[in-house]
Design brief:
The protein is of the alpha/beta class. The chain has two helices and eight strands. Pfam families: Ble-like_N (PF22677).
Length: 114
Amino acid sequence: MSDISAQFVGVELYFEDLERAKKFYLDTLGLHLLDQQLGHHAKFDVDAAFLCLEAKGSESYPSRDKAVLFFEVPDLAAAIDAIGPHRFVRSEPHWAVLHDPEGHNILLLHAGPR
C-alpha cells in the first residue's frame, strides 16, 4: 500500500469540436467557465474540482477517449425536464445518463443525504 494520499481535483476530456463542447457544458449543465484559451481548452469550476475540455491533438501525451462524468443534482426529475427527456439515453429513479456532443457519458445523480 502506498503512502501517497491522493485527492481528486479535476478531469480533462478531449474534443474534436471544442466550441460545441464548451456550449454544452455552459448551456446544458450550467457550469461556470473559469478560464479558456480559444482553440486549445476551456476550464470549468465544478465545486472543489475542475473540468477541462481540450481540443484533440493539442497535447503531446493524449489519453484514451473513454470517460464518465458524475454530477449531483438536487432534483433529478426537474433536471431531466429542464434539459429535455429526449436527450437522455437511460434514466432510473436515482440517476440518468445523457451524452455530451462527442459521446462522453454524463451521469446525473439525485443528491441525497450524505
